Each structure stands twice: as C-alpha cells, then as structure tokens.
Fold AAA family ATPase.
Amino acid sequence: MGNRQDGLVEALDVEQRTVSWLYGRLDVARGRAQAALRQVYARGGGTRQAMVEREALAGEQARRLAQLNAVERGLCFGRIDDGAGRSTYIGRIGLRDEGHESVLIDWRAPAARPFYVATATDPGGLVRRRHLHLKDRLVVGIDDEVFDLEGMSEGDRRTLVGEAALLAALRRGRTGRMGDVVATIQTEQDRVIRASLQGALVVQGGPGTGKTVAALHRAAYLLYTHRDTLERRGVLVVGPNPMFLRYISQVLPALGETQVVMTTVGEMFPGVRASAADTPAVAVVKGDVRMAEVVARALELRQRVPEGDLVVELDGLRLRVPHAVCERLRERARAVRLPHNMARKLYVTEMLKELAKAEARALEESLHLEELANGDPELAELAEPMNLEGDLDELDLELASSRLWGEPEVRRAVDDLWPELTPRRLVSELLASPETLWSVAPPGLDWRELVRPAEAEWTAGDVPLLDEAAELLGEDDSARRAAAREAESEQAGDVLYASEVLESTGVLEEGVFARADVLAGRHADDGAELTTADRAAADRTWAYGHVIVDEAQELSPMAWRMIMRRVPARSLTAVGDLAQTGSAAGARSWGEVLDPYLEGRWRVERLLVNYRTPVEIMRVAADVLRAFAPEQEPPESVRSGESEPRAVRVPVAGLPALVREELAEIGSEVGPEVGPEVGPEIGPEIGSEAGAGRVGVVTPDARHAEVARLFHPEGDLDAPVVVLTVGQVKGLEFDAVVVVDPAGILAQSPMGGQDLYVAVTRATRRLTVAYEGELPEVLSRLPQKSTM
Ligand SMILES: Nc1ncnc2c1ncn2[C@@H]1O[C@H](COP(=O)(O)OP(=O)(O)OP(=O)(O)O)[C@@H](O)[C@H]1O
C-alpha cells in the first residue's frame, strides 16, 4: 500500500515537472503571437492594399492567439511509452522547444495515433499509455494502461497508477454542454475521426455511441490535416435544431477551432428563419424529392404567353404583339437555359423591341387613319404608305425600348408574362394556390397536404423548397442583402469578441492598438477581410470543402438535395442512427438517401458501444426498439448504472416533486426552501447555485407547454431542469431523465416508437417514466409505483 502511494507521489511529481515546463512553452508561444500582433499594427499607415494585407496578417495572428488561449485547459492529457524507452506527450496542440524539437504532439498528428488505437491485443509497439488529469496547471491524477509490463523499466513499473480514464470521464456530472473527449477517444471512434477527407462516410451508431462527439473531433482533425484546402473552402456542420447547436457549441472552440460554420436545415436559406413546424403528413410530402419538379413546373407556369395577342394601351395607341411572337420569345428565353431572373433580362429586351415595333405600327396606322379622315381621300390614297416600323434601326429600337420600359402599363404587361421573382414569393404563392398545386403536382403526390395561407410562417421543410426555387431563379439579391445586413449586425459581436481576445491577452495597450473592429476583420465598405466561415455562412451558393451532417437520419430527400448543392466535391460525413428516425420524411436506409448522389460511392463505419446510457436503462430501450424497429440492433452499454429505471404513476401537477427527487438523487444542490408544492419556482430557485447534474424532462409535443409552465427558465440548457419535446432532446443528454406521458409520445406521430426510443436513451444515470393512465405495454419491464 505504502509502495503504491509512494509510486503515485513520485509519478505525479515527474509528470508535474513536465507539464509545468509545457505550460512554460505555451506561455512563450503566446508571447510570440502577441508580439507579432503588436508588430503588425505598429507598422501603421500605408496604401489600401497594405492595410488589407496588414489586417489579414493581424487576423491570422489573432486567431493563433485565440487558439493558444483555447488550449489552456487540459493542455497535455496523455503520454505514450514505447519499448525503446521513448516517451511522447500528447496534447491539444503541438509545441516545440527552443531547438525546434517537438515536445508536445498535437492529438491530430499521425504521431499521436498510437495513443488512441493501441489495445492489449495490438499495442502497436507501446508498452504503456498514460492519461494525465489536470486541474488548471496541476497534475491531479494519472491512469495507466500497461500493454507490456516486461518491456517497462523498473522505475516505471514502480510508478504505475491505474483507473480507467474512460470510465472516470463517463461518470462525470453533465453540465448542459458537450465537452471534448480528446483524452479518451476510443479506437472505433478514432477510425471515424481520421477517415480520409475524400468521399462520403456514413457513421451509423445507436444512441450514446459518440457519433456527435466523433464527428466534431473529425472536423477538428480535418482542419488540422487539410488546413490549406479547408481554410479556403470551409467546413459546415448541420445539426437537428438550434438547441443542439448550442449544446455542442463549445466542443470545437475547446479544440482550438473556431472557423466551422454550424447551422440547421431550417437556417440554411440566408434571411429566412424557419419558426413553424409541419405536421408529419405535410413533412412527408414537402420532403419528397418530386417537390423539385413541383417547384420547377410552378416556375414554368409563371413564364406566360397571353391567351391571344399581347395588347398594351399606351397614350391612346394599342400596341399589339402577336400571340405567335409572344410564344417565340418565351421559347427563346427558355432555350438559353439560364435561371429565370437572368433569362428575364433577355426576355424583357426582346419583348420591348417587339413593343417598340408594335408602337411604330400603331402610330403608322393612326397617322394613316388621320390622313384619311382629314384630307382629300384621293390624295390620301395616292400618298406613299409610311413604313415607320421598317425605318427603325437598332439605336431607335433601343431608345424606344428604354422609353417604353419607363411606362407602367408596359412594365405591368411584361411583368405579368415573365415576372421577376424571389424564392419566397414563388414558394409562398405556390403553396397558397390549390389550382397551381393541382396542375403541377405529379400523380401520386398528395398536394392537398401542402395548401396553406400565403402569409404562413416558414417551416424547416420549406427551406429546401426555397433553396430549389433560388437555384431556378438565379441570384436573389433580396436574400443576399438581408444576409449582408445580418452579417453587419453580427460585426458588433465579433468586435466584442476581438476586444476580449485583445484584453485577455494583454495586447490591448493604449496608444499601440485599440482597434478591436480591425481585428474583427469587418469593414462595412469591404468584405475582403471576412473569414471564410463568415463569408460561407452568408452565401447560399457557397461550396464547402467538407460537410458534416449530424442526426442525418432526420433529413428528407429534399433536404439532402440542398445539402449536396453545398458540397459539390461530395466530401461529407453523415452521422446518424436509423433506429432514431423521428421525422416521417426522414431516412429508412442510407442507400435510399445517398445513392441518388453517390451511386454507392459511400461507406459505413459502425459505432457499437454506448458510452452514455447504463445497461439497466438500455434494457428498457432495447424492448422499445424490438417492438418498433426489430431490424435495428441496440448498442452495448459500456457501464452499469447506480439505479434501476422506474415508472411512476403521477399527475402532471406532481412532476415538480418528482423532479426534485431526481435532482436530489443526482446530487444537484436545491435550496432547502424549495418545497415540492412550489413547483413553478423550482427553476429560478435552484438556478445558479446548482451543482453539476441536470434533469431533462421529455414530453410529447402537445404537452410541452403544460409541463414547461411548471419549471423555469424554459429552454435554458444550462438550467438544472430543462423541459423539452422529443424533437428538441434529440442528440442531448442529462444525468437524470423524466419521460412524461409515454403513451402520448407513442401516439404523436407514425414514428412514435422511435421517438420513445430517443426519449429513454437520453439519461447518463437515472430514468423515470411518468404516466397517468396505463403504462404502455412496451415499458412493462419497469417496476411501477403510484403517487396518485
Ligand atoms: N471516447 C469517449 N470518451 C469519453 N466520453 C465519450 C466518448 N465517446 C462518447 N462519449 C460521451 O458519450 C456521450 C454520448 O456521445 P454522443 O452524444 O456523441 O453520442 P451519439 O452517438 O451522438 O448519441 P445520440 O445518437 O443519442 O445523439 C457524450 O457525453 C460523450 O461525451
């Protein structure tokens, strides 16, 4: 015992010396980046070109500084020893000593790989893997895994220390935000993270298998390994909802990567925020890939030919363009195969010329008639017939065209035949018109589901339709302008961030440099200094270098069409679980959604170990899965829990008391003054003082408001109690979960079984199912208790 204790003290001492020295190197690197930043700004003045270059350089240095700051926590977390007595330290970033020797290896570098892939059966030349646990800059714990005891020196054997680092990490209380797992990435996850940039990778895995966390580490890995390509083209991460994006928002910054665009399908059309939800039946129709045809045909209907001739009354003249000419002009404008708004330019030019000719003809006719009426009929008959139309040369036509374009009557007539359209207008007018839908929908597509008022709010299902429309219409200025305005307003946030960077790094010194706005790289008059991520996020037509889609099973075929447009090189990672598909328009198989674009050129990696949900809870989840998706396999839990899951018969009013019990069980601190009877105050009372540990209350959609009223603050992920629908809770996790009204969840959509599976797999420690009437048969394994 005494020996082990001595060994630990000795090992901690050795590692502390190394770690302190590494932090010293980090401080040196920071000092250098600060000095470089100051130097850039000390130059001052110069031409506009010089200024632009200077700001680009400053932006780069500032990002480097931000990255060096981001790795402060847990700078070094691992060490590997090989049989030749060499030790390598692994950390969040790579560092070198004065002699340029590598002293800390970036976790993404090839040299760090053995740390993640060595196993007892295949140690890859390692004799030991050591995990270091730091608190601030202090080494507070060590875990060893020994692969070859014989290969270790006597001294090293004496200082062996062990408790599985992974299990320690998994036992930690949840904070409401996902953290990085660089120190404990598992071999199967490592394969996903380091897969090649080229091609499409599907990561299929059950709940809690680390799909999200692996996908985010993959983003960081790809940016590190292919920085040149990806810094120029950017990486896009698509998540299921804004709450989820908030949940994962800290993982990449903690890994030193801030240049990734994160969005949801509902936010992918610049200037539109999808705030409403479609019913499952509507989602299915809207998500059907045949909707692309519906939008295209609706647009064709907007390129009209008048019933008879086109007649425009102008200053007493009747300008007449024959029907056949109108038809010809439309065909010519279509034949150029440009998007509608661009082809319109051609159409308008040609139509105005026709109208100019028609005007000359009408004028001629009216003058002729005048002569006939006023003069000697004999003379009039002898007079040379005028040929005003024939006398028009190109210049005359152009002048007449531009004069005519200024006439509201002309403009109205042309707009009616080939209007300038925005995607919003095309889609909202289409969905508001049963006649149009009826005439453009292909047989078998239930277009009646789509009909809604023109002023209806946008839904996430509308966004791919808007994107489709934008493709067909061509550049839509209004959306771009809206996005530019948004980007401008975000500038304020960036300036604030930049000034924080400057302040925290001590660079913001009076006189030298007080220009956080410059560092933020945003000038109203020039977008050249925007980062790739900023530019990409504001540009609907941006082609990303790599796209990661999380909860990819939820995307409809129309959403995939939109995503594929963003990644023409088809370098993408789709992570998801077909057993958790909640959207009626979502995927039933990966081939079904990917083959239309990749024709089998995609591969699957499977993650099989559940790091979140303990065995006891997973048994309940497996019953649900077996009942609703028997072809899917539940993952295997890596650990067993501290408590058996339970079912409690309780009215909604009793939920605050139940949640209080759960908070107490997971060790979250609740003020003693909060009694079960004061449910509504439970949130604020336990707000900021709460210890680690969160309770998630999951409800059917229809009961969310009723239950959320009992707890505050609503929807705040950092609060100790969060009330969410199944759609919102997807991808999240909590120490304890209370699933309310399981029968309601099962009944709420055709995918109710999958929804219940999602709900019961969110807990890391405790699961309670709260019900009022009968407990669904599928949960009969749960021991039942009544508080009614
Ligand atoms: N290698 C690891 N080391 C430590 N923790 C891990 C590891 N892998 C996964 N975890 C943890 O397991 C939990 C589940 O991970 P994650 O949310 O990525 O799973 P998922 O497969 O996306 O789940 P779901 O399908 O339910 O959304 C997280 O808390 C994550 O941090």
